[in-house]
Amino acid sequence: MITHLKYLIYCHWHILHMRLLSLKSRGVRLKIVSDQPNSIELKSMSDRYAEVHYVNMTALTKGRLLSSFWVVDRKHVYIGSAGMNWKALSKLKELGVIVFDCSCLALDLHRIFSFYWQLQYRDYIPSIWSKRVTAVFSRDEPLRFRLNNTDASTSPELFCPKGRSRDLDAIRHVIREAQRFIYISVTDYLPLVNRSFRGSPIVRYWSPIDEMLREAAVLREVKVRLLISLWTRTHPLTINFMTSMQALCTGLPVCSIEVRFYRVKEQMGGFQHRINENKFMVTDNAVYIDTLLFRKRHCQNFIIIV
């Protein structure tokens, strides 16, 4: 049974899909990079017009390609958490930013895209980087325009050409520069790394971001708020880490760490497993938008700082 809400959501996705396909009649090229060769949406677009390159992230980093951005005419950009499928546009709570008429930022993003584009059919990272993919802006040399100081960073380190900031360094910079508050919304918060050694799984604590937040609250008296998704795949240890973090402020009058779990109403309009997918951090002097916040990076993702 198709509900009215389902029908409206499908219509929105269908309109977007058809507008992308209509670009051919206007002489506009559509190029897409993904690591999902089995995507029904991408196969449909590839068969009809779009140029699609698939990156074998399993061979390159044993991770996934989680970057999500658009570059239009090297002038406009979209950066956000939403993937290009109907589920991301209907079942998931996403966040994105559109920047119009900013050729400088578009050029930097285009260089990241160009690097992805070149990785099709490769199972290794080039040892020598082309100057066409080196960073235009970074954390140390940010782009200055109307949205304050903005720079793009990426991960993992293998995907960082000359001048490109690693996202862990960008996160560290934002947290350390905060003076009054740090507000974070994230799907999962689990500072653990799963490794395999001789076929046996090994789990260890991954401390960098977790320790920075604790230090900010306890030593620098910065107010920390965490909004974490509560869904079917929330790890039980997430509760333990949050309890441990809040316990740090016991007996400290100026220490403030607040944690809330966010659950999207299930079965709304007949849908199940609706998720809060957006990932961002707000401080008193910066906004940080990510696609894979606060997990150890084995995946390729992209962030922007404003």
Description of the molecule:
By secondary structure, the protein is of the alpha/beta class. The protein has a single domain, classed as Endonuclease Chain A (Endonuclease, Chain A). Strands 7, 8, 9, 10, 13, 14, 16, 17 and 18 form a nine-stranded mixed β-sheet that branches. α5 runs parallel beside α6. The chain is globular, with a radius of gyration of 20 Å.
Write the layout of secondary structure elements.
Elements (H helix, E strand, L loop, with lengths): L3 H18 L9 E4 L5 H9 L2 E4 L2 H4 L8 E4 L3 E5 L11 E2 L2 E4 L3 H16 L24 E3 L2 E8 L9 E2 H11 L3 E6 L5 E6 L2 E6 L2 H11 L4 E7 L6 H12 L9 E6 L12 E2 L2 E5 L3 E4 L10 E5 L1
Parallel strand pairs: 1-2, 5-15, 8-9, 10-13, 13-14
Antiparallel strand pairs: 3-4, 4-6, 7-8, 8-18, 10-16, 11-12, 16-17, 17-18
Helix pairs in contact: 5-6
Measured between the Cα atoms of the first and last residue, the distance is 44 Å
- Count of distinct strands: 18
Largest sheet entry: 9 strands, mixed
Task: Count structural domains.
Answer: 1
- Tell me the name of the CATH class: Alpha Beta
Low-confidence stretches: 267-272, 297-306
| SSE-based structural type | alpha/beta
Order of helices and strands: HEHEHEEEEHEEEHEEEHEHEEEEE
Look at the structure and name the CATH superfamily: Endonuclease Chain A
Radius of gyration: 20 Å
Which geometry do the CA atoms define? Answer: globular
Quaternary structure of the protein: single chain
Helical content, roughly? 25-40%
Pfam families: PLDc_3
Domain PLD phosphodiesterase: 61-88
Protein name: Si:ch211-194e18.2
GO molecular function, one term: catalytic activity
